[in-house]
Predict the structure.
Amino acid sequence: MSSGTAAIELALRALGVGEWDEVITTAHTFIATAEAISNIGPVPVFADIDPATFNIDPNHVEDLVTERTKAILAVHLYGRPADLTSLMAIAERRGLWLVEDAAQAHGAEIDGRRCGSIGHLACFSFYPGKNLGAYGDAGAITGNDSAVLDRIRMLRDHGRTTKYEHVEIGFAERIDALQAAILAAKLPHLEDWTEARRRLAACYTRLLANDDVVVPVETDGIRHVYHLYVIRSSKRDGLLDHLKGAGIGAGIHYPIPLHRQPAYLKRGYGPVSLPHTERAAAEVLSLPIYPELSDEQQQAVVDAVGSFHG
Ligand SMILES: Cc1ncc(COP(=O)(O)O)c(C=O)c1O
């Protein structure tokens, strides 16, 4: 696919999600997740998150299912797998599609099963900053139903079945061949890079143990691939300023929940209340993490967090 956003759009279209349907997703994510839903017509319905994992809360999802619900779009945020076991049970019970937004979760696992192989379809982004990144936009869809995947191949390429035979009105959403070549060269390194991220994350968690911050939870059977290493702090904004002052590239993912974005307020989301999502948006802080981060650089980050807390 040409991008992760295009992947989500086409995955939903291929599953027959249409204008009058609803798709349940999270508001604590990059806007592309919901944008892909809105751009094909259905209403994104936002479920709250589990505050321990930042991922969509299956109990809230179940409460939000209506006759119009067609799909659940679960994001593996920051590289931590969403609770697909519970979500798949809901999907099966209520006759819904489960689509994974795995844009941040290359190589993540639940009980040894890879994210991207569990939902009915899954969508990846290879935007340059992702754990596996191209040198420009690129994406992919994975799934286990070969008929659906054939339909996606046809739709992404102008609805064609042969060079000049077009059975549906499709899209120009093929991956750029140069990006595909770059990804093919980088793919063999992904495991090493993932292990480096996991080692750095374990180190942060150990070194930050005595600070006044909440570190990511590690759960048995869950392989978190740390696209981002996100801590929580009740003094987040002060801590961020302090880190920036020390020359550290910390960030916030994401400062405004989607139901509070002007684009969605205009669409009537004002009354929506998601307490855990709103609190997370006020408290999360992403510390630098990438495979090449050195021990000295990491120690400098930890020292800066420590000096803020005195
Ligand atoms: C969670 C999530 N979903 C979707 C996307 C969209 O991917 P892309 O930028 O490749 O369109 C991104 C990344 O940008 C993302 O982080």
Remarks:
- The radius of gyration is 20 Å.
